[in-house]
Amino acid sequence: MNDEILLHERVQVIAVFGEGLNPCRPLKFRRTNGREVEITEIGLRHPTTRGKRTVHMFDVTDGGADYRLEFDSERLTWHLAMEADRYE
Amino acid sequence: MSSPLTHQTYNEERPLVMHIDLNSCFATVEQQARPMLRGRPVAIVNRRTEHTMIVTASYEAKARGVGLGMSVKEARRLVPDLVALESDPSKYRYVYHKLMDIMRSYSAHVTMKSIDEGVIDFHQTSQDIRDRPLEEIGREIKQRLRDEIGIAMRCNVGIAPNRFLAKTAAGLHKPDGLDVITHDNLRSTLGTLELRDLTGIAKHNEARLNSVGIYTPLEFLDSDVSTLKDVVFKSIVGEQWHQRLRGWEVDDRPHPLKTAGRQYVLESNALSRAEILQRLHHLCESVGAKVRSQGKIARGVFVYAKTRDRRYWHARRMASAPFFSDQAIYAQACQLFEKAPEAIKEIGVTCYELSDDTDKQLSLFGDQLAQERHTALTIDVINSRYGDRTIHSADTLGTGIYVKQKIPFGSTRYL
User: Fold this and answer.
1) Distance of alpha carbon B237 from alpha carbon B235, whole angstroms
2) Helix (H) or strand (E) holding B288
3) CB B122 within 8 A of CB B116
4) Which is nearest to B137 in space by CA: B159, B169, B115?
5) Would you say B114 and B120 are in contact if contact means Cβ atoms under 8 Å apart?
6) Which of A45, A50, B26, B288 is the most exposed place for a label (fewest CB within 10 A)?
7) Where are the beta strands (DSSP E) in B247-311?
8) What's the whole-model pTM score?
9) How close does chain A come to B391, measured CA to CA in Å?
10) DSSP class of residue B241?
C-alpha cells in the first residue's frame, strides 16, 4: 500500500542559513547508525505547527530515497520523520 | 421575458479575469516534495486501506485509467505499480497559501475557489499591471510557482472576460495550459466542447437542456433567454446562463456560510453503538469548532447515516434558541441518532441555519448561554495555541487516531 517508513530519529544535520526564498538549506545528515546522507534536492519545505511551536518540514532526497527532516524552530532540533525507498 | 439589463450580445471588453488551477494538486505537491515519485503513477487517499477511494491521481496515473473515486484496489488492477499516499493537509495548505500570495501580488481582487484554484480580477488593479498583456502575467505566474514552490509545480491558466469563461479556458489544455477566450474565439472554442465540459452542467442540467433540443454548448449559446429562463431552468438561473455564456459577469458574488458539517466513514464494521456515538461526538466537536471559527451560531442540527446495504437515513431538528458549543451540538445529534438504523457504514453531522454570533443575540437567552459561550471560546483559544484537540471531551479520547482532519474540498474557509 505505502512505501513510507515513519520514524522519529534524532539526526545531526549540516545546514546553510543564507538568503533568498529558501534561506535554510540542509546539506547532509548523519543518522544514529552513523550513515551519512548527502542531500541532492530539497523537494519542498513547509512550516507546520505543533501547538504554538513552529516545526519546519523538509522533504528531501539523496537521489536514491526520499526523506522527511523536521526542524523544531523552538528547540533547535532535527529529526528524521520519514524514509521512503521501496518504489517497486 | 428578459430583464432590461440582459445583454443580447457577446461581451467584447478586453479579457481581465484570470482563472488559475493547479494540476492534480495533491499528487503534484507530493511529486514536488518527493522527487523519487516524479514520473510515477501516484494516488492520494485519505486512509491507508485498499478499499479507500482515490482523492487525486497524478497525470501518470490518470493516463493509465486511474480515476477519482476509484478504490485503490481497483486502481491497482489497472496500474500495479501505483504508489498510494495518505493525504498530508499541512503540505497542501502551505502550497495554497503560496499560490494565494503570488496571485495577490497582481491584484487585491483574488477569490480562492477551492484549495487548488482561484480567480484574479484585474479590473481594479494598478495601471502598471493592467498595461501588461495578461498572457505574459499568466506565464510569469507559472514560472513563479516553479521558482517559489518547486520545479514540478504546474498550473492551468485561463483568461476571459468573466469567471465562467476563464475557468472554461483553464480546462482546455491540461496539464500546464494557458488559453484565452474572447468574443472573437468564443464560438470556435465552445464548438470543441461537450455540454458536460461546462462547469455547472452535470447529468441533471444536461437532461433539462436535452429536453428542449439543446445538445451542444453552441446550441446552448444560441438559445434565446426566454427559453432558458422560462422553459429549461424555470428561474433567473436561465437568464444567468444566457449572460454567462456570452462573457458577462454573473458569478462575482459572495457565498455566505449557511451550513457547516463533517462526515466519517467508519473504520470497522464491528463497532458497537457506543463506539459509533463516540465518533459522532468527535464530528460534533469538529463541526462546533468550524462554526465558531467563522463567528457563527447555529439553530439546527442534521445527522445522517449510510448503512452497509446502501440505505440512507437522516434526521434534523431546529432548536428554539441558538447554540454553538460542542456539547449542545452533540446533545441534539445524539438524541436524533437514537433512531438511526443498524449496520452503519458512514455517519455525518451538519449545523444549519447559521447566523452571525453577536453578544446581543446570545445574551437574550440568559446567563447559562453566556457562560457556555465563554467556555467554548476559551477552549478554542487554548486549542489554537497549544494544538488542535488539546482540550476535548473525555468521551472522544480514543477517536483522534481514526477521525483525522482532512482537507476540505470546495471551501477555503477553514484553510
Assistant:
1) 5
2) helix B273-293
3) no
4) B159
5) no
6) A50
7) 260-265, 296-307
8) 0.83
9) 12
10) H
Catalytic residue among B30, B60, B117, B372: B117
Helix (H) or strand (E) holding B92: helix B89-104
Q: Where are the beta strands (DSSP E) in B194-326?
A: 260-265, 296-307, 312-323
pLDDT digits 0-9 by tens, B97-134: 999 999 999 999 999 988 889 999 999 899 999 999 99
Nearest chain B residue to A49 by CA distance is B387
Give the DSSP H/E element, type plus range, for residue B188: helix B186-190
Preceding amide of B175 cis, omega within 30: yes
pLDDT per position as a tens digit, B387-408: 788 889 898 888 877 777 666 5
Q: What is the Cα gyration radius of chain A?
A: 13
Q: Tell me whether residue B372 is one of the annotated catalytic residues.
A: no
Full set of structural domains in chain B with CATH = 11-184 (3.30.70.270), 193-253 (1.10.150.20), 260-396 (3.30.1490.100)
Which is nearest to B170 in space by CA: B209, B150, B197?
Answer: B197
| Per-residue pLDDT at A28 exceeds 90 | yes
The alpha carbon of residue A75 and the mean position of all alpha carbons in its chain are separated, in whole angstroms, by 15
Closest to A61 in 3D by CA, of B3, B345, B152, B243: B152
**Which pLDDT score is estimated for B365?**
58
Decide if B85 and A4 are in contact by the 8 Å CB cutoff. Answer: yes
Task: Give the pLDDT confidence score for residue A35 in this predicted structure.
Answer: 95
Please say whether the beta carbons of B75 and B61 come within 8 A: yes
- Chain B: which residues have CB within 8 Å of chain A? 29, 32-37, 40, 48-50, 72, 81, 83-86, 90-91, 94-95, 147-150, 152, 385-387, 390
Q: Look up residue B279 and give its three cell numbers.
A: 465518533
